[in-house]
Amino acid sequence: MGICPNCGSWIDEGDICNCCGGSGYYCPDDELEDTPNFVIELPKATELVENERYHEALDIVDKYLEYDMHAHQFWNLKGIIMKNIADDDSDTRFAQSVECYRKALKEKDICLYRNNMSITFSDWAWYLIDRRNYVVALEKANEAIEFACEDADLAYAFNVKAVVYNRYGARELAMKFYDLALEYDPENEVYKENKTNFYKAVDYKYGSGH
Question: What span, in angstroms and rounded, lies between the C-alpha atoms of 11 and 20?
Answer without folding.
Answer: 11
